[in-house]
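Narrative of activities, Objective 1.

The group set out to show that a structural description can be obtained from nothing but a protein's sequence at a throughput compatible with the screening campaign. Below is one input-output pair from the validation batch, recorded exactly as produced.
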Amino acid sequence: MQRLFTTAALAGLALSCADGPAPSFEETVGESPVVELPFDEGDEAPGAAEFDEDEVRLGLPTWSIDQLERAQPGDVVQVGDYSVLVPPPGRGVTLIAERHDGTHQSIHLVTRQDGRVVQVEETHHEGTQLPSVTPSLPDGALGAPTTPAACADGAYALSGFSWKKPLAWWFKAAATPRTLNAGKVEGSLRRGAAALTSLHNNCGRTDRMSGTHVYKGRTTRGTNFVWTGTVGCGNPDDFNVVSFGFLDGATLALTCSWWWEGGEAAEMDMRFDKDVRWSTSSSVPLACQRSFMMDSVGTHEFGHAFGLDHVRGDSHAALTMTPYSKPCSLGPKTLGLGDIRGLKTLYP
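Output recorded for this entry:
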C-alpha cells in the first residue's frame, strides 16, 4: 500500500511569474489532440458522461465537528453535506465546496502528533476598502447592498497551508462530460492556474509571487474523493489531479487539500460537477443564462489549491475568492487587490 503524504516527484520547469495578463493556453503549451464533438459547447445534452470515481466508505465510525475528541485516523468527520477521512498524526486536510446557490462550506482538520484531532480556523484579513460598487450576486444569495470594487478591496482569507515546491498537477481528460471539448477545458484550467501564479489583474499592479505551478499533462488517475453517505475527501496518493465527476447535485466544485502539520501543502485534488452546464468560452456567450464559466470557477478553485480561503462574500463579492459563484460571469478569472495580497502573504 502506498504511503500517505509522501512528497510527489516533481519534474519539468515551473511556469514563471510574469507581469501582466496570464499567458494564454496557446502561449504556454501546444494543445493536446482531441476529438471535436458534434454539438455546441455549453449546450445541455442528456446522458452527461458518467465518471463516478467515488470510493464507497460506508460503515466507518462517523463523528460531528463537536465530537472530534472521539475521532481516530481513518474515521469520518461529517460537517453538513460534506465529510473528510481523518488523516494520520502530523497531517491535515481541508475541504472547500462551492454550491450552485452561492453558499459554501469548508472543513479544516489536523491530527496532532499526539493523536488529537483538532479543527483549524481559516484566518480573515479585511484589508482596505475604497469606493463601493453595486455587487452582482446569484439569485437568492444574501448580500450587502454595496461591495468594494475588486481593485479597492484588500480583503483575503487563508486556509493555513502553502506550497514549498511548484504545484504539479494533472488533468483527467477522459472524465470530461460529452457536452464539452476536453482540450478547451484543459486550456481553461491552465489559464486559471496561470492567473494565480502571474497575479493576473486589471489594477495596474505588477506584483510577483514566489509560488509556481507545473501542468504535467493528462492522466488516467482519479481524484481522491470518497462517498461516506456524503461526498468528501479521502486519502491522498501523491498526485494532484483535476477532474469532473459526481458530487451531490447541489455542489458546483470541490477542492480537497492535504498538508503537513506546520502548514506545508502535500497534495490537492479538484473536482467539478459533471452535470453542471459549463462553458469554456473566453467571452460570455450572448445567450448565456445558466452556464458557469470554466475560466472563472477554475481560477477560484486553484486559489483554494494554493491556500486561499473564501472571503466573506456579502461584503467582498468583487474578489476572485468570493464564495458567490455566478453563472455567465468571467469576473473571477481576474484577481482583485485582496486576492493578490493573500497570495503574496503565502508566497512572498
